[in-house]
Amino acid sequence: MILDGKLLTIKQVIQVAFGEPGQPEVLIGKTGQQQVERAARAVQELLVRGEIAYGITTGFGAFKDKIISPDQVELLQRNIVMSHAVGTGNLFDIPTTRAIMLIRANTLTRGHSGIRLETLNLLLAMLNEGVHPCIPEKGSLGASGDLAPLAHMALVMIGMGEAEYQGEILPGADALQRAGLQPVELAAKEGLALTNGTSVMTALGALLVHQSECLYGVADVAGALSMEALHGTPLAFDERIHQLRPFPRQMDCAANMRKLLAGSQFTRDYDPSNVQDAYTLRCIPQVHGAVRDAIAYTRWVMDIELNSVTDNPLIFFDDESGEISVLSGGNFHGEPLAIAMDYLAIALTELGNIAERRIMRLTDDASNAHVLPAFLTEKGGLNSGFMITQYTAAALATENKVLSHPASVDSIPTSANVEDHVSMGLTAALKLRQIASNVEHILATELMAAAQGIDFRRAEIGADAQLGQGTGEVYKLIRTCAPFIEEDTLLYKYIAAVKDLISSGRLNFCAMV
After folding, report:
1. Which of 54, 165, 343, 475 is catalytic?
2. Is the residue at 334 inside a domain?
3. pLDDT in tens, 11-49
4. Is residue 15 domain-shared with residue 144, that is, in the same domain?
5. Is 492 a known active-site residue?
6. Full-prediction pTM beyond 0.90?
């Protein structure tokens, strides 16, 4: 994989994040190398001229007016890495860490940050060899970027901190040595270039967009399977209805539902005594479609941010005059990402809300007009059946409602009120990650409950009755890891196995149009 700072995709981030180190190998292309080397030369030229430039010959944040002597500019960069590495909480998992490293390298490859090719190559060598810095999840305010977590990444590059290598947590210097790598002595601007930017929240955002795209497809499948279990009608998915309210992704979802349910003998046609279903079935395209809109918007934001330069200050060149400009701005501010991830958090919460209500309908015989036995068990009383699975789904849905309060509407001033408005972008990302995990569990529960309902319906309409074109395949896959539950047993292992089907992507082969 060749980086040039302009063409990195979410698909490539997923490939590197979840791939084995070096598969694919990530390198800087010739154009990227030239861009990086030009910016590094510009930094040295500024030092020779004795010009004052933020973060190169000045302190940081509230110390922006403190001038640094030429003989201390390298110590300044080492100091920013050490002093800023004050994160806390659990460590990011390896896929997230790899995504952070890749995105940071891609940003620096644009050649506006002033890092040397030698230093950038070390970051990529660590990625390719599987030296993964131990990065705590908490400590970023989302402006000036993700300072604390990125400082923990940079610590290993100077032989400090800790890193995971081949399944073992080691001192940073030892991890580098085992991988055949050497730490670097940071030059002017390099510590700031490594730590100042949005790469952590962008990494989480990219991974969560991918996960969310899987979830909305699975949600369509779960809703369709529940409709069959509940003897619902697909008439609400008629194309004519959705053409009169032409939100594109609402129409896509309705088309997907028609595809999934095509040929089903478990749904009902027009019935004058039962003309329409509850909202959780009838309004799937309207709700799931709105969720798809939020995911699409968040993807758009992340696609831009993956190839943006987000540190400060930035170096610019006038090719005609040869003039070098160092401009201070605010591209490190994570507000675009924070708002997008808050929006997606609200959307995924709704995806969990509507799924939890379908679980309720599957388990409450009064709500489903006694199409299914209470709590999906034949021996209610002695057996509780799926009663408490709905409790857990309700607990997770409620937790999501709390977590979906937007982080981006909060701010707290820092650095002696110089950095007086922050995005809380990483907080938004961490909340979104928990919401996505909760929704996976809710959907796994719905799929398992719907499959249980299908088996009860088969006893009524015949063992040879056909499920839909898409739902039939999903039902078979669920039954490879979760059996029909005849009497009370340990359900959590089966729910976990179905959740693994979701997180592994194995359900997505028939989940989307």
Report:
1. 54
2. no
3. 999 999 999 998 999 999 999 999 999 999 999 888 888
4. yes
5. no
6. yes
